Amino acid sequence: MADKLTPERRSWNMSRIRGKNTKPELLVRKLLHAKGYRYRLHGTARGGRLPGNPDLVFAGRHKVIFVNGCFWHFHDCRVGQHAPKANAEFWETKRTRTRIRDAEQRQLLEGSGWEVLTLWECELKDLAALERQLDDFLLDPSP
């Protein structure tokens, strides 16, 4: 049986988890840059910060992309539905709040005329499908 983590060790582990410049985000950025797309990072647009600090902002197109981790944002895939056994109530509450906050921020962005694409970590494995999804989103002339 595995040893239980001490609170200090768990805190250290959690402090190592990034909110920006994650591997999934870097993968998307590299793909977009190679295709010639240019963007701003982490919610910056003319006029200041955008609600939710989107990972990628295409100000001229009025489009933003969020690259979400399945576990942290409570995706409906296998990884997102994993429920930690240790401190279960805390994690359920935290992840539910994140899901609610994500929906509120999306609503604020769309209400301000921004088009929003959310990419999930589990979707990034199929690069051809990801590339098509990004092109469809960015080449679509709407808002």
Summarize the structure.
InterPro entries: DNA_mismatch_endonuc_vsr, Restrct_endonuc-II-like. By secondary structure, the protein is α+β, with helices and mostly antiparallel strands.
Report on this model:
41% of the residues lie in helices and 15% in strands. It has 143 residues and is of the alpha+beta class. It has a single domain, classed as VSR Endonuclease (Endonuclease, Chain A). Strands 1-4-5-6 form a four-stranded mixed β-sheet, with helices on both faces. A two-stranded antiparallel ribbon has the order 2-3. Strand 2 (44-45) and strand 3 (48-49) form a beta hairpin. The longest helix has 24 residues, at 88-111. The radius of gyration is 17 Å and the shape is globular. The chain starts with 6 loop residues before the first helix and ends with a helix. The model has no long low-confidence stretch (mean pLDDT 83). Pfam families: Vsr (PF03852).
Instruction: Give the strand order, joined by hyphens, for the main sheet.
Output: 1-4-5-6
How many alpha or pi helices? Answer: 4
Low-pLDDT windows of residues? none
**Number of beta strands:** 6
Known CATH architecture: 3-Layer(aba) Sandwich
What gyration radius follows from the Cα positions, in whole Å?
17 Å
Shape: globular
User: Mind telling me the CATH class?
Assistant: Alpha Beta
**What is the typical, i.e. mean, pLDDT?**
83
Helix content, binned percent: 40-55%
How far the N terminus sits from the C terminus, by CA atoms, comes to 55 Å
The CATH topology name reads Endonuclease, Chain A
Tally of separate domains: 1
Q: Give the class from helix and strand content and strand pairing.
A: alpha+beta
What's the SSE pattern? HHEEEEEHEH
CATH homolog superfamily: VSR Endonuclease
Strand-residue fraction?
Answer: 5-15%
